[in-house]
Each structure stands twice: as structure tokens, then as C-alpha cells.
Amino acid sequence: MMILLMGPQGAGKGTQGERLAEQLGYPLIGAGALLRDEIATASELGVRLRAIMDAGELVSPDIITDILQRRLQQPDAAAGVVIDGYPRDPEQLRLMFERFVPEMVIVLDLDDQTAVDRLGGRWMCPQGHIYNEQTRPPQTTGVCDEDGEALFQRSDDTETAIRKRLQIYHADTAPLIAEMQTHGIQIEHVDASRSIEDVWEDVSALVR
Ligand code: AMP
Questions:
Q1: Cα–Cα dist 94/54, whole Å
Q2: Going edge to edge, which strands form the sheet with 28-30?
Q3: Of 46, 53, 104, 173, which has the maximum CB count within 10 A?
Q4: Could you tell me if the CB of 93 is within 6 A of ligand 1?
């Protein structure tokens, strides 16, 4: 089963996606995480991607769709996947329908101010574990509870880039939800302004 997680930045797609993927035994595939992996290789493509992402802009639909499709062909994705952060604009939606079709879309709804507040306090571990100064602080400041690695803040979690990313979400990404519904895909909305546990209760009930 292919499940898409949609919602504005800061809604908790990564956090809820981690749990959902674990519950289902599927890999969590984050579009942004795949791009950050490419950046980490310091390839020529990675250098270009970093400049686009730090500005809060979207990378081209062909690039992200190709990278994602390659990931979906890995053996661990055969039974099902949870995808976070794709599609984000009409061209990606068109390419998606040509290549793969999700069964369910879970939309995590959140207002912009809460999103900005949450992302400004977000800390990541190199393995992808996510913390937040207000809602999910690590036991020791700056250190991952799970693997002891040093936490860092994403270079695109600046207020300017966050506002730009939210603007793109509302203009380009949110309208895709209604379009997917017209294609018969199951769409489920969850109020993501609540605690991680409360949101998880609703998200996990959708796949039980
Ligand atoms: P995220 O980790 O989902 O917040 O994504 C971080 C950044 O990666 C975005 O601001 C974009 O620059 C880029 N990105 C992630 N997913 C996509 C996508 N589906 N299409 C284009 N760019 C993307």
C-alpha cells in the first residue's frame, strides 16, 4: 500500500511518518530527505540542490520524481511505502499519475503561525530523528536520545525560508489534495495542532 503524508512544513509529517512506517513495516521515504542525501554526496547535482533548497524553492519536478522513482524500486519498498513531501506541484502530480498511484493520502492540517513557531525550534539528528525545543526536547540538549549523535538545525529552517516554503505549500501543493480526491484516492484530514500522541492516535486509527 502506498500512503502519502501531506501538510504544511512543521505539521509533523516526519514524526508521524516515522511511527506510521514502523507500525506498517514499510520504509518512510521523505522527498526532502532523499534530496538531502544527494547533497551529502557533494555531487555537482547536490551543490545545485542545496542552493535551491536553502532559498526555500522547489527543485524541478523531473529531478525529484526520478530520484523518488529510483527509491521506490528498491526491494524494501515492494510491499508498501509511506511517502512524505511528494507531490508538491501540478507537474509532479502529473508525473506521479504516469508512474505510480497512492491508495491513501493523510493530510496533517496546521495553521502557518504554529508551523513557523515549531520549525524555528526544530533540531535534527543525522539519522533523521526529529526534536523540538517546545514539544519534544531531547533528554540532553543537543544530543539525540536514540543514538547519541549531535543534533543540528536545518539550513532551510530560517524564518525567511520557512515563510517561502509555506507560501509554496498553499499556492502549489494544497490544491493537489482536491485533485487527487477527484481521482478516487482516499483523503483523510487530521488536526495536527495537537500533541504528537493525540495526532498519532488519529493517524494510527486510519490504518488499523
Ligand atoms: P522537506 O524536508 O520536505 O521540508 O523539504 C525540504 C526542501 O526540499 C523543500 O523546501 C524543497 O526545496 C525540496 N523538496 C522536497 N520535496 C520536494 C518535492 N517533492 N519537489 C520539489 N522540491 C522538494
A1: 26
A2: 28-30, 81-84, 2-6, 104-109, 186-191
A3: 173
A4: no
User: Rounded to an integer, what distance in angstroms lies between the CA atom of residue 130 and that of residue 138?
Assistant: 9
The region of weakest confidence among 82-86, 100-104, 128-132 is 128-132
Work out the pLDDT band at 50, boundaries 50, 70, 90. Answer: very high
Asked whether 124 and 40 are in contact (CB, 8 A), the reply is: no
Place of cell 525567511: 160
pTM surpassing 0.85?
yes
| Nearest residue by C-alpha to atom 12 in ligand 1 | 53
Q: Give the Å distance between the CA of 149 and the centre of ligand 1.
A: 24
Largest CA distance in the chain: 47
Q: What amino acid is encoded at 12 in this protein?
A: G
* Residue of 45, 48, 53, 155 with the most ligand 1 atoms within 8 Å of its CB, for mutation: 53
- Residue-wise pLDDT for 121-157, tens only, equals 999 999 989 999 988 999 999 999 999 999 999 999 9
Please state, in angstroms and rounded to a whole number, the distance separating the CA atoms of residues 45 and 25. Answer: 32
